[in-house]
Amino acid sequence: MITRLRYILLKWLLATTARLPFWMLYRIADIIYIIIYHFAKYRREIVTKNIAESFPELSGKERNKIMRGFYRHFADYIVETIKINHISDKQMRRHMTFENIELVDSLIDKGRSVVAYFSHYGNWEWVTSITLWSRHAINGTAQYCQVYRPLKDRWFDNYFLKLRSRFNSISIKKRSVLRELITLRRNNTPSVTGFMSDQKPSGGDLSHVVKFLNHPTAVITGTETLARKLDMAVVYIDVEKIKRGHYHITLRLIAEDCSTMPELSVTDTYTRMLEHTIRRNPDIWLWSHNRWKNKVLFPSNDTRPNDH
C-alpha cells in the first residue's frame, strides 16, 4: 500500500511538473543542479575520472568547467524529459529542429529501411520528435522505432515507454529487435530505427575495440551486424545544443549500402563521428555512465588506434 501510494504521488508530481512553462522548469533545473552537484555529488568520482582521462591535454580548470557544464545540462535533461508529457507538436518543433531529413525520406523512397545511430548526448529523449519532420512519418508510410533496454522498475519502465511513444514511434526491446524488424520488412513497411550505441557492450554482446576519447574502448557491433543482415542504410544523428532548451540535429549518411564497406567500418565511422560531436561540446554527453569500467586492450596485431 505504501509503495502504491508513493507511485500515485510520483505520477501526480510528474504530471503537474510537465504542465509548467519552460522558464519555471529551468528554475527547478537550477535547484536540481545545486543538489546533484554540490550536495549529492551524483557519481562525481566517475564523472571526474572519465573527463580527466578523456581530455588529459586540458587543465584542471578546463576539465572542471566541463564537469559543471555536464551537471547543469543533466539537470536540464531531467525537466525537459518530464515536459514531453505536456508539450505540443508546435512547441517541440521549435525546441528540436532537424536538418537534412530529406536524406532519410529519400532512402525510404528508394525502398530502403534505415538504421539511425545516436547516443546519450543532448536530450536523447527528444530525438523521437523526428517523426514531426519526416514526410513518411507524417503520412504514415514508414514506421519509426527506437531500441531500448527495459528498466528494472516496472513503473518507470512504463513511464518512459509512454514518453517515447509521444510522437508516434514505437519502442522495441533489444532482445526482440531483429524479429520485429523482420516482421516490418515482411509486411513491406519501411522502418527507421534508432540505436543508442555509445554505451559499453552488455555481457554476451560482440564488441570491437577502437580508440575513443583517449581510451581503448569496446564498442557495440550488433547495430552494424543487423544493418548488414537486413540490408538497411545507415545514418548518424548529429546533435548540437543551440541554447538552453533548444537543439538542432543534422542527419548524416554513413552508408547507403553496407555491403560496399569493409566489415566493422560502419562501427568505426560512427565512433569517429560521435567523438567529433562530443569534442565539439563535451558538456552534454552522459559522463556519469561508467563507460570504461572494464579495461580492454587493442589486439596485438591491431595498428588502427592512431587512425581513430
How would you describe this structure to a colleague?
With 308 residues, the chain is of the alpha/beta class. The chain has one domain: Glycerol-3-phosphate (1)-acyltransferase. Helices cover 44% and strands 19% of the residues. The chain has helices at residues 2-18, 22-39, 44-54, 60-83, 89-95, 101-109, 135-139, 154-164, 177-186, 222-229, 265-280; strands spanning 96-99, 114-118, 143-148, 170-173, 191-196, 207-212, 215-220, 233-243, 246-255. The strands form 2 sheets. The protein has a 7-stranded mixed beta sheet. Helix 2 packs across helix 4. The longest helix has 24 residues, at 60-83. The protein is globular, with a radius of gyration of 20 Å. Mean pLDDT is 94; it is low at 301-308.
List the helices and strands and how they pair.
Blueprint: H1 2-18, H2 22-39, H3 44-54, H4 60-83, H5 89-95, E1 96-99, H6 101-109, E2 114-118, H7 135-139, E3 143-148, H8 154-164, E4 170-173, H9 177-186, E5 191-196, E6 207-212, E7 215-220, H10 222-229, E8 233-243, E9 246-255, H11 265-280
Helix pairs in contact: 2-4, 3-4
